Amino acid sequence: MRSSLRPARMNFYFYAAMIGAGISGTWVAWLFAARAALRRYKLKPGYLLSVVQVALVLALMYAGFKLSDYFLEILGRTTPSDAVLFRRIW
Fold it and tell me: Phi and psi dihedrals of 80, rounded to 5?
């Protein structure tokens, strides 16, 4: 018996989950790297680390939006409700 889901719908959720996993993985890797650097060089977190973290979050969100626009274009989804659902998943 075939599934009632269309392949494009499954790709929709797969792409959204892939973006979310990539953003989360990059953020966690950054946290581990920053923690290791702070411990290795015996530094205290300061305002510079906070600024770098904000810049990284903004860069990750920008990349996520660009990727979501790209995948929505590939899937042929143009309605705003699809874009909102896609971005809520990731």
Answer: -60, -30
